[in-house]
Please model this.
Amino acid sequence: MSDPSTATESQPRRLVLANQKGGVGKTATTLGLASAIACHDGDQGGNVLIVDLDPQGNSTGGVGVEVVDGQLTIASVFDSKAQPGSLADVVVASAWDRVDIAPADEDLADLDESGNADMVWRLDAALDGVDLSAYRAVLFDTPPSLGKLLFSALLTADEVVVVTEPTVDSVKAVDRIEQTIQRVQRRPNRRLEFSGIVVSMDRGIAEHNFRVNELRDSYGVYGQGGKVCRTVVPAYAARQDAHSARLPIHRFRGGKALSLQVAYTDLARELGLLNGATA
Model:
């Protein structure tokens, strides 16, 4: 595991993967990008830290980490007694080479219902002074809601990548999450950028093609002054098969895994997450 507790020269980008709608591929995108960065040959790749803020813990399980009784999890940093920099005590090595994780479990479930208003600042405090320079990127996997857990990530992140599937309900949800980002940008985190939109789980049917074009008409194309990434991630069963096997998609063989490997590598390069690529 990379040591997150020593002095640093430069810090990585902090990206929140978000959408208030569930089932759109946030976790798949988080793990796909982590796989692309960690498994990339040569000096373009690097280490990745995943911060799992979803009580379902799918990113945690996806990288082969099982939370045991008494283990510190990301829920620990939201405790009122937690000290600044406490994230360093939570991070563990995953079963994936070059990927560490701040794991989640069901203890997170009650936090969105907490009436404690200052809870949303505790994640930012937990990162205070923590050296993250060993990582290429810090990826925050968030729950499908606009609650305190998502806000806590937005308050400490540099940028947001909205993940959506190409359906009418998911496209509408992009507008709502954009409004949330704008509220955060106005005051508590002025450096936050709405940097991109990733279309996931595309099946190539007429409805999906229509929604992709609709998004591009509304938000423009990434790299051309807009936000919608040119790379569209297809909905292939190999993604779930790799997840069930607790393997990075770039280490999985079978089905149409190669197509997904290419898609996530292209997406990581497009977002500037591979060395030498520009966002």
Observations:
- Strands lie at 13-18, 47-52, 92-93, 99-102, 135-141, 159-164, 193-202, 228-234.
- The mean pLDDT is 91.
